[in-house]
C-alpha cells in the first residue's frame, strides 16, 4: 500500500536516510539525514512532488514520490510534449530488499500514473551502476532511452544515469 507522507513519518525517513546500506543507493553515504534535514527536504511546501510512504503487511518500509516533469526537465530529457511523470523511491527497511516488493511497487505506481493521472510516459533516471534497480525497472516495462552523462552528484562524484521510460 502507498499512502501520503504524514508528519509522524519524519523519524522513519531520518532512520532510513542515515542507514549506510540505503544511502549507498539513495542520496549517498556522505549525505546522511537527521530529523531537521528531513523536515527541510521532505516537508517543504514549495515543490510539486507527491510524497508517499510505502507500507507492506502493515509496516512502513519505504518512500516513493511522483511528479509531473516541468518544461525544463522535459527539454533536458528530449521530450517535446505530453504528460510525463517521474518517480523516485527507496525501500528503507533493508530486510525487505530482494523480496519482489520493488517490482510490485513500481508496477502498481506505473499503473496508477497511467490510469489515474493520465500519464503518457513514466520516466526515471537511475545511476548506471545501480544494476539491481535497473533490472527491477526493466522487469516492470521500462526501457533505457538515453545516457545522461554526469547527471547526479553522488558521494562527491558526478555520476552517469540512464533515462528510462515506460509508455
TrEMBL record:
Keyword Endoplasmic reticulum carried by entry: no
Keywords: Antibiotic resistance, Transferase
Example GO biological process: response to antibiotic
GO molecular function terms listed in the Swiss-Prot or TrEMBL record: N-acyltransferase activity
Residue ranges annotated for the N-acetyltransferase domain, each copy included: 1-165
Gene3D superfamilies, per the entry: 3.40.630.30
Pfam families recorded: Acetyltransf_8
Protein's UniProt name: Aminoglycoside 6'-N-acetyltransferase
Organism listed in the record: Mesobacillus selenatarsenatis (strain DSM 18680 / JCM 14380 / FERM P-15431 / SF-1)
Amino acid at each position: 500500500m502507498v499512502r501520503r507522507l504524514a508528519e509522524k513519518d519524519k523519524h522513519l525517513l531520518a532512520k532510513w536516510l542515515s542507514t549506510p546500506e540505503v544511502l549507498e543507493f539513495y542520496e549517498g553515504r556522505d549525505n546522511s539525514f537527521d530529523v531537521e534535514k528531513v523536515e527541510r527536504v521532505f516537508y517543504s511546501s514549495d515543490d510539486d512532488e507527491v510524497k508517499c510512504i510505502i507500507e507492506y503487511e502493515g509496516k512502513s518500509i519505504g518512500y516513493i514520490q511522483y511528479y509531473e516533469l516541468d518544461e525544463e526537465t522535459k527539454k533536458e530529457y528530449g521530450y517535446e510534449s505530453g504528460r510525463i511523470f517521474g518517480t523516485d523511491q527507496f525501500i528503507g527497511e533493508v530486510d525487505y530488499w530482494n523480496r519482489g516488493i520493488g517490482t510490485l511497487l513500481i508496477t502498481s505506481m506505473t499503473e496508477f500514473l497511467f490510469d489515474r493521472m493520465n500519464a503518457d510516459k513514466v520516466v526515471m533516471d537511475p545511476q548506471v551502476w545501480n544494476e539491481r534497480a535497473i533490472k527491477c525497472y526493466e522487469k516492470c516495462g521500462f526501457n533505457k532511452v538515453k545516457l545522461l552523462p554526469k547527471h547526479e552528484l553522488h558521494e562527491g562524484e558526478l555520476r552517469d544515469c540512464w533515462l528510462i521510460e515506460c509508455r
